[in-house]
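Annotated sample (chain length 108).
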Amino acid sequence: MAVTLTEAAARHVARMLEKRGQGLGLRVGTKKSGCSGFAYEVDYADALDGGDQVFESHGVKVVVDAQSMERIDGMEIDFVTSNLLNQGFEFNNPRAKDQCGCGESFSV
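Output written by the structure step:
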């Protein structure tokens, strides 16, 4: 399986990388957090670490560390905009069994 980006998310990441002037792609991971157990971490991928898996969607690379991969394998990341002040990534994770009420954390 893989971690993929929608076309909207890929366009957003490509714009941000171009504006930044460097980076291999988008780094996506998880950390222990919140009331449900894990939270998503999103950052620029400037280098690859041992065990990283690299996927490509719509010409943009997605880098995932091995530990996070078991929690997010099969996930699709979208970038949604409801208005100019309310925009961000939306995570469609088939491995998430539950999510906290505020949507900040999930369990597998």
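Annotation: The chain has one domain: 4-107.
Annotation: The chain has two helices and nine strands.
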